[in-house]
Amino acid sequence: MAQPNDLSPVNPDELMAGVARLAFVWTLLFSLVVHVAVIFGTSIGYMRLMAQYHSLHPRFEIKRLNKDKREGDMTATRKAAQERILAEQAKREAQEKAGDKKGTAEQDTGTKAGGEKDKPKILKELEKTSNERPKESTTGLDDIKDLE
Q: Has residue 31 got a pLDDT over 90?
């Protein structure tokens, strides 16, 4: 055995003897195969999503599709509510024209001169909350002068 202070030359073949054995190569290959199998096995679900959504980033695509579905459902709900309200208003107007006292009595008690009371509460709320972007900024950042 060599001493720590021994400065005698070392044969490189002796240093590489452990690596040059065939058992080391087979162990290295086995380890590589195991790593590839584990990585592939844990990625099957992600690869399935990639194939299903035709995207390298399926999570973003899933979020976008869910958002589009929610917005479509919301729009359909609003349209249905608005159609129902308009149908009720048309029904009331038809009852008024027919001279039904019950319809006219209810209409007279809820009517004000401004015409705002003619609209049902749901229709007012739908008109209040709009998805349109504002045309002008309300932050007032244009008034701030440059800081020097």
A: yes
